[in-house]
């Protein structure tokens, strides 16, 4: 309630009780005292009510403001803490899906765009990504029988030729791959054009699109 309205109510009530006492003739003294006391009681209640409004409203507002500020500060601190935790524990990028550029090729034998063949299973494919050391969840290592020593070697993502297998992408240990020999090295797979501009007969490999060139600047 606005302050000027509170003052206006009190200013009206106080004179009103005096008008009631002065202009009404009571039948006896007892009734006059009762009316007068009742008027004073009414005024006292009104004044108490006004005092309560003036005293309590600011306190309540201050409490709400203080609680709101505290809650706001808590929200900011919680959000900052959550952001800090997210920065401290980045989401893993498995199977050579990380977008970070690979500039260190130490120990990496093959390049993105080269056509390779699996030594054991005989399927052909084109390399679309690699990790200098294996990047996969633990349960995948157990399921695929990848040893601890192999996990420290490069692994490659390979688009498999659909003439050798159904549409598939594999993640292969470097020791299981070798380059395809011969002149016809083009791979049939619907996702080849997502990663490469074209096949280059002179190079015997595929030309990388810009986003792959950014990830593998030395390939």
How is this structure best summarized?
The chain has 219 residues and is of the alpha+beta class. Helices cover 45% and strands 16% of the residues. The chain has helices at residues 3-23, 29-88, 138-144, 192-195, 210-215, and strands spanning 115-118, 124-131, 155-160, 169-173, 177-179, 196-200, 205-208.
**Distance separating the two termini:** 74 Å
H/E element order: HHEEHEEEHEEH
Major beta sheet, specifics? Answer: 5 strands, antiparallel
As laid out across the biggest beta sheet, the strand order is: 4-3-2-1-5
Unreliable stretches covering 5 or more consecutive residues: 18-44, 49-88
Radius of gyration: 42 Å
Task: Tell me the total number of β-strands.
Answer: 7
In one word, what is the shape?
A: globular
Number of helices: 5
Which strand-content bin applies to the residues? 15-25%
Helix content percent band: 40-55%
Structural classification? alpha+beta
Q: Quick check: average pLDDT?
A: 74
Folded structure, characterized:
The protein has five helices and seven strands. By secondary structure, the chain is of the alpha+beta class. The strands form two sheets. Strands 4-3-2-1-5 form a five-stranded antiparallel β-sheet, with no helix packed on it. A two-stranded antiparallel sheet has the order 6-7. A hairpin with a 5-residue loop joins strand 1 and strand 2. Helix 1 runs antiparallel to helix 2. About 31% of the residues have low confidence.
């Amino acid at each position: 309630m606005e302050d000027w309205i509170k003052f206006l109510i009190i200013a009206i009530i106080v004179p009103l009780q005096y008008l009631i006492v002065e202009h009404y003739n009571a039948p006896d003294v007892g009734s006059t005292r009762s009316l007068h006391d009742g008027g004073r009681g009414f005024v006292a209640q009104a004044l108490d009510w006004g005092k309560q409004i003036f005293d309590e409203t600011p306190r309540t507002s201050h409490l709400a403001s203080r609680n709101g500020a505290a809650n706001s500060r808590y929200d900011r601190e919680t959000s900052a803490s959550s952001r800090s935790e997210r920065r401290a524990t980045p989401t893993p990028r498995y199977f050579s899906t990380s977008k970070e550029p690979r500039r260190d090729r130490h120990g990496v034998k093959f390049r993105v765009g080269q056509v390779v063949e699996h030594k054991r299973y005989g399927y052909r494919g084109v390399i679309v990504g690699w990790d200098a050391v294996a990047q996969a969840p633990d349960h995948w290592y157990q399921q695929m029988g990848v040893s601890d020593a192999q996990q420290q070697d490069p692994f490659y993502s390979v688009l498999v030729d659909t003439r050798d297998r159904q549409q598939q992408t594999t993640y292969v240990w470097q020791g299981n791959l070798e380059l395809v020999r011969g002149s016809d090295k083009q791979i049939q797979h619907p996702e080849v054009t997502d990663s490469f501009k074209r096949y280059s007969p002179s190079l015997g490999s595929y030309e990388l699109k810009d986003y792959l060139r950014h990830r593998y600047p030395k390939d």
